[in-house]
TrEMBL record:
Ranges that cross the membrane: none
Listed Pfam families: AMP-binding
InterPro entries: AMP-binding_CS, AMP-dep_synth/lig_dom, ANL_N_sf, ATP-dep_AMP-bd_enzyme
Domain AMP-dependent synthetase/ligase: 10-401
SUPFAM superfamilies, per the entry: Acetyl-CoA synthetase-like (SSF56801)
Classification of source organism: Bacteria, Pseudomonadati, Lentisphaerota, Lentisphaeria, Lentisphaerales
Domain of life where this protein originates: Bacteria
Name the UniProt record assigns to this protein: Peptide synthase
């Protein structure tokens, strides 16, 4: 009987390429030349380190099904620890550190973990927030920590080097991944081994991941995926919880020194990189595949990369999905330019491609804010009609942990099948392409007319002075468009704003003649989500606009 444990993926890599590099980290820069001095773990070394940690975990009482909070920075240790937890069948809990203490503690409380594995600072944080951590009995620190009851994982050692992955079934719980909390409190998504295994297979196949590639992942969990797929991964020199604040020069140095050919990051990160590359006439010559994920990508970013920054033949992939179902569809940058850009720029929304697998069932249902108890074909909409995107298939998660209310609102039962409601609006076109139109709870309804954020903002974003824009309701009869300008002068001068507003009106009238919006506001630094720094927090902007007007 085969073993569905994800740690088996690492064991397979050891069989195939034991002495090849698996995880690479910048150790320091040479003082004279500035060249990077790197350290790494081979697949075998990573396997041995995770075996050591697994044995320590098992001996301390962490066992199959134990939920374990991980509070460790991205890097080789995070990979080794996660594989170690998989080996003993424990359930690692991943929470975005960037969400701030209040939201983080809310997630910790929901997860009801039995153990923590973290940096010493995590245990100091725990001391001041005991209640949320109730139930945590086993504490492992990555380094010495003077707090009573916290053991040092770095000081353990065992004779036996190999700790085998325990037997897991496809239906066993593999991990708990919290959403980014962009639309309310973050929810703990239950991942089974089956979902992880399917994701790995489909990403490897569709993005043609090869052992000869070199990955650089701006989203830490993807580094783990890379290793599982046999692709070495280099850790970027940045705070991965703030992708939009990365220093492009440091990133480029690593990409060049390590010949990065594959990279996964948020559109906000790739925008910062594009600005720098264009200003300095820099090309990403080693890259063959850029993956941008987390929010819609405007056609212009594809244009910039494909025309000015990437080498001939390199490709951009934009997967669409959510923590609860990922990756659902995928769109190539070259396809955006040849097929959908013009339509996006005319107000049709953002094309996110076709379902990535024939095993997925993706449909559009009537918009509703209520729970849908049971599936019925009556709620399914026709091509061209905008509704909520739902899916059912091997990547569809079935529940949120410890959150039956959230589960009820997001899932629809259909015999043996479970549908996940994405909370996103979209439609299928006649050719079977899915078009994303914005998030359901950010939709604007004015006098029974549905206004979709992504459709309208895509048009306004074409204006030369608009960095991004957000459509928000002001009251039942009026909406406003808030603009984050790309030049500060616009924020300071009322006269300039008047001229710009007239241009916005003209642009919208030309592309969307039926749209009746005449309120425009300007605001610097839009609030964005904590994970990708890319999703606009329109709820906060709505509150701001309502006060402002
Ligand atoms: N390619 C894409 N194009 C447009 N939007 C995307 C794309 N990929 C992801 N998204 C957006 O990201 C959402 C998923 O985000 P994620 O799973 O990080 O958590 P979240 O839904 O933001 O968190 P929460 O549910 O806590 O608010 C999708 O529902 C969609 O709105």
């Amino acid at each position: 009987m085969s073993n569905a444990n994800i740690a088996c993926r690492l064991e397979e890599q050891v069989d195939q390429q034991a002495h090849k590099r698996a995880v690479i980290e910048l150790h320091k820069r040479d003082e004279n030349s500035g060249g990077g001095i790197y350290k790494h773990l081979t697949f075998l070394q990573l396997e041995e380190l995770s075996s050591k940690y697994a044995r320590a975990f098992a001996e301390s009482g962490i066992t199959k099904g134990s939920r374990v909070l991980l509070g460790v920075k991205p890097g080789a240790d995070l990979c080794a620890l996660t594989f170690a937890l998989f080996k003993v069948g424990a359930v690692p809990v991943f929470i975005d550190p960037g969400m701030g203490p209040k939201h983080l503690l809310n997630c910790v409380e929901q997860a009801k973990a039995e153990a923590i594995v973290g940096l010493p600072a995590v245990f100091v944080f725990k001391l001041f927030n005991c209640k949320a951590f109730e139930g945590v009995k086993i504490k492992w620190s990555l380094g010495f920590c003077p707090i009573i009851g916290v053991k040092n994982l770095k000081s353990v050692s065992f004779q036996e080097k190999f700790y085998p992955a325990c037997q897991m079934e496809q239906s066993d719980v593999a991990a708990l991944l919290f959403t980014s909390g962009s639309t309310g409190p973050a929810k703990g998504v239950v991942y089974t081994c089956k979902i992880f295994n399917f994701q790995l297979d489909i990403i490897k196949e569709q993005y043609e991941v090869a052992t000869t590639d070199m990955d650089m992942s701006v989203f830490p969990l993807f580094a783990l995926f890379a290793v599982c797929m046999g692709m070495p991964t280099v850790i970027p020199d940045m705070d991965t919880s703030k992708p939009a604040a990365a220093d492009p020069e440091k990133i480029l140095q690593i990409m060049e020194e390590q010949d990065v050919s594959f990279s996964f990051g948020s559109p906000a990160f790739w925008k910062v990189m594009a600005d720098y590359c264009e200003e300095n006439n820099h090309k990403l010559n080693s890259v063959r595949c850029l993956v941008m994920a987390g929010c819609s990508v405007e056609p212009d970013l594809h244009r910039r990369y494909l025309n000015n920054i990437l080498k001939e033949g390199a490709e951009i992939y934009v997967p669409y999905g959510a923590t609860e179902s990922l990756p659902l569809t995928s769109m190539k940058g070259s396809e955006v330019l040849s097929f959908s850009a013009e339509r996006s720029e005319a107000g049709d929304g953002t094309c996110v491609g076709k379902p990535m697998s024939g095993e997925y069932d993706v449909k559009i249902i009537k918009i509703s804010d209520d729970a849908v108890e049971e599936w019925s074909n009556d709620i399914v909409l026709k091509p061209g009609e905008v509704g909520e995107i739902v899916n059912s298939g091997p990547i569809t998660t079935h529940e949120y942990y410890n959150n039956s209310k959230g589960t009820k609102k997001s899932k629809i039962y259909d015999g043996d099948k479970i549908w996940h409601r994405m909370g996103d609006l979209g439609y299928f076109d006649e050719q079977g392409y899915l078009w994303f139109c914005g998030r359901k709870n950010e939709r604007v309804e004015i006098e029974q007319e549905l206004l979709c954020t992504d459709k309208i903002e895509n048009v306004l974003n074409l204006h030369k002075n608009v960095k991004r824009s957000a459509l928000v309701p002001l009251n039942e009869k009026e909406a406003a468009l808030i603009v984050e300008p790309n030049c500060e002068k616009l924020l300071e001068s009322q006269d300039r704003q008047k001229v710009a507003i007239q241009e916005f009106v003209d642009l919208l009238k030309q592309k969307l003649p039926n749209l009746k919006i005449d309120k425009f506001l300007f605001k610097a630094d839009f609030p964005v989500d904590v994970r990708h720094n890319a999703k606009i927090k329109r709820d906060l902007l709505r509150e701001w606009a309502q006060k402002e007007i």
